[in-house]
Design a protein that fits this description.
Largest sheet of chain B: 2 strands, antiparallel
Largest interface: A-B, 40 and 28 residues
CATH superfamily of the largest domain in chain A: P-loop containing nucleotide triphosphate hydrolases
Structural class of chain A: alpha/beta
Strand order of the largest sheet of chain A: 6-7-8-3-9-10
Shape of chain A: globular
Oligomer: heterodimer
CATH topology of the largest domain in chain A: Rossmann fold
Chain lengths: ~280, ~270
Amino acid sequence: MNPFIRIENISYTYPDAGQPALDGLSLEIIPGSFVAVLGANGSGKSTLAKHLNAILTPDAGRVLVDGMDTADEQNLLPIRRRVGMVFQNPDNQIVANVVEDDVAFAPENLGVEPAQIRRRVDEALRQVGMYEYRLHAPHLLSGGQKQRVAIAGVLAMEPQVLVLDEPTAMLDPRGRREVIAAAETLCRQRGITVVLITHHMEEAARADRLLVMDRGRIVMDGAPRDVFTRGQALRALGLDVPETTALIQRLNAAGMALPADALSPEDCAAAIEEALCH
Amino acid sequence: MLKDITLGQYFPGDTPVHRLDPRTKLILTFVYIVAVFLVGSWGGYGLVIAALAAVTAVSRIRPKALLRGMKPLIFIIIFTAVLNLFFTPGEDYLFRWRFIKITYTGVDRAISMVLRVMLLVSGTFLLTYTTSPLAITDGLERLLSPLKKLHVPVYEFSLMMCIALRFIPLLIEETDRIMSAQKARGADLETGTLPERARALLPLLIPLFVSSFRRADELALAMECRCYNGGEGRTRMKQLHMAWQDGAAFLLGALLVAGILLLRRLGI
């Protein structure tokens, strides 16, 4: 399949920073995939995210979105329409004080017909399970709900790619589950490409493909189960493995023979039960 | 404590007054203000009061709420009354003692000025009580949209209003949080002389400002990501529609003005 986003050897240094934030990074993202990006603070993962919809443009190399170069001003709106971005703090992304008015903001900016906007807003809110809250004031919603409204606000542009830049960092465990579940559904059922930047191993474990970044480069790239077997290397980068993987590794070290790819708590429990009962 | 601040003083409801197009209500409020100034007879005041009472009754706003709105203005009202009562020139004395003179014209004028101020205030309060701040912003934007031709950024102003309204509860919450944090570290925000208290506010205001700027930065980025590029070529999901009720409201407004002018001519 042709990659929807193609990144060719990009480098980027923030003004008045010594170290480059991205250092000769290349990447291709296949449409419909769920890609997670892990990395310690300062590894460049947020900088990478901002290159995906032309908020930042590379100092060297180039980024092509659906064949369009992000460095070309002419492509700005078409690229942002295709690649939606959701940030960490839901409060600072919501513009209007009624949920449905906020979701309508992007299609209104794009000059969509009023009846069409209504349809898109209702659909976007249904996709994230917030339709019943369409007339609420955002400040009365929980963190997870607000973040889902923010996702709906981006979905109303009908993007092909959804970039989530640490969307769960400010949420409680319940809100975290809601947001990740919504993103996963969008990817699996609607075929939207999801790029999830995260700190949480458990979230990253649910992706098809896991990228690990360090000092502006991608140092590991593969299926989560393969990446997480390299616990030693991950710890050296200041990262950890999911608790399930850590448990399996310790049990295996103690003489059990459990499969290393049981990532979800359910799979892990099933694998242990299997080993104990036979 | 800061949570008690209600802004815009909107009382949600589903009455004919609530349902009117915000543009109609804005225009009629303007007409009403002009009408109050056109009143030239006691009969005219009676008519305006009757109209106000009728609208209040239809919109199910409690008269108490209207009077409560008047509270902050009590000094202006008293000042107006005193000024007109004692300093109206004339010879038709009602009361005279040394340099204190009260004339019949003065009493007349004091009562009519106080009535006028109170009617103006309660009329505009009725607008904000029955129309959400968002609807007012929306209505204003559309009424002022002809100014776009003169390159007045009408859409940007209304977006600014909208964002300000959106962020008020957030900033109040944040102020509460910072206050608790400073109090936990021994800050005394409630006692002391006025200059001392003003100085004590500084550690409150600085973090608030810093975080507001950060919020503004992030919001701007999020707006850009949602393809915001100015008011040009923008459409709106919600279209405002004038219905027959709006026509009826305009007719009633015209009748009010005509009635006032007639009573003024007749001198009733």
